[in-house]
Every structure is written in C-alpha cells, then in structure tokens.
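Every protein is a chain of amino acids, and every chain bends into a shape of its own. The fold becomes a row of whole numbers, each drawn from a learned catalogue of backbone shapes. The protein below has been through that process, and both of its lines are reproduced in full.
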Amino acid sequence: MITIDLDKLSVKPGWRVLDVGCGSGRHCCALSRFKGVEVVGTDLVYEELTKACERVALERSFGTLKARYCEFAVSDICFLPFKDGFFDLVICSEVLEHVLDPGEAVSELSRVLRPGGDLVISVPRTLPEKICWALSRSYGASSGGHLRIYRREELQLLVEGKGLSHWATHFAHGLHSPYWWLRCVVGLDNENSRLVKLYHDLLLWDIMKKPKITRVLDALLTPVMGKSLVMYFRKGEDVCS
C-alpha cells in the first residue's frame, strides 16, 4: 500500500532517498524499482526492519530491484545518523502522529535534506482520525498509538517554519477509513470479528489485484474521507538546516 505519489517526484538515477519510519518497507520497495537510486530506510522497531529486508530480497528475486542499494538502520527520527544535506528526497509517512516532539522531528528531516530537495510527509487526515478517537478510547492510548490529530494548516505551518515551501497536497486510501472505524467499534484487539476479517481481505484483494471496481470506489471516496493527508515540501536553496 503506497501512500506517497512517487510519480510527482521525478526520482532520478543517483538520488539518495531516505524513508524515515519505514516500517516493513512498503515505500522503500517501491523506490527500489527506480534505476540507480540509493535507498535507506530507518525505523525504531528492529522486527519491522527485518520484514523490510525480506521484502527487498523478494524484489531482488523477482528481478524488479533496480536501485544501486536498499539498506536499513534502526534510528530515532529526532536523532538521524546522517550528514547535513545528505539526501535528495526524504519521506516520512504515517510517523509524526506518534512523535512526542514533532518540531524536533521535522528539524531533523529538514537537516538531512539537501537544499532544493523534496520532503514528503503523510499523517492521518483530520476527520477520519477524529472519528477513530471518538469510537475507541484505546485508539490513541495504546502502546505506539497516535498522540495527536493534525489539521492540514497546522502541519503546513510546522514544516514551513523549518524553511521548506509547500507545493502539493492530496489525500489517499479512501477505502481504509471505514476499515479503521470498524476496528474501533469491535475493539482494536478483537481478532475474531468476521466483518473485520472480510474487510481486511477486501483491502488485500484491492492491493494485490487492483480490480476496477475497488479502484473506482477508492477514487470516489478518497477526496471525501481518504485516511491519509499527504503533503509535499521543497527545501529552499538558501536553507542549510
């Protein structure tokens, strides 16, 4: 499930790309299919990075891995182990809602991005997220849960305050909001809900097969209740950190 629209970014051979909070490597794998790029994924959870390595190995076995390399490291978003301006593109998808100090996190994302490079951030969209919080007390209180709800204007001001300029926005995953609302209703830890399992199977079918019916439904629902807000920023040429 890819949240970022990579077609907007004109990824070029030789680019260094960082995916912060990469989880099991969904965006890293997509980026690894671009010829000649150098992809690095970081996350706090070692087990997730193990899954990411396995996914990259599958890309290699299928012959779809075109990147110069795709590597992973355990790292905190507020203490990234890279030089200033090292990356041409930085992605941070569905991470900032978990972070105690988003200002420090965005400062680090900006620091490791070269002047003129793009930073892409996605967070849960305001209204679908508010519904989740209203339906389930444990949604935000569970370990690793969401600590805050972002408004579009709030996120834009936060990132622009670090010297980046906003240039595009879209929403993503219209089919996913009802799934999370359903999970909140039946209980996030409820593994026995047949309805949740059926909806999960529908989402997997959509991801794997991309049938026309679900693609049309997603296109209709995403502007109204897409689960994710995706924002694109560019670092000013005269900004060094």
Observations:
- The beta strands are 16-20, 38-43, 69-74, 87-93, 113-124, 164-172, 228-235.
